[in-house]
Amino acid sequence: MQQQNPSQLPTRTPSAEEQKVIDDVLALYQLRPSEESYAHYADDATFHDPVSIAPTRESIQSQFNGMPKLFADSVTEHYDVLDDSSQPRSIVLNLTQKYVFKSPLPGKKEGSAKTVNSKITLKRNAQGLITEHIEEWDHEKNKTSEDGFMGKVQEFRKKMDAKLVESTVSSDPSKV
Question: SUPFAM superfamilies this protein is in (predicted)?
Answer without folding.
Answer: NTF2-like
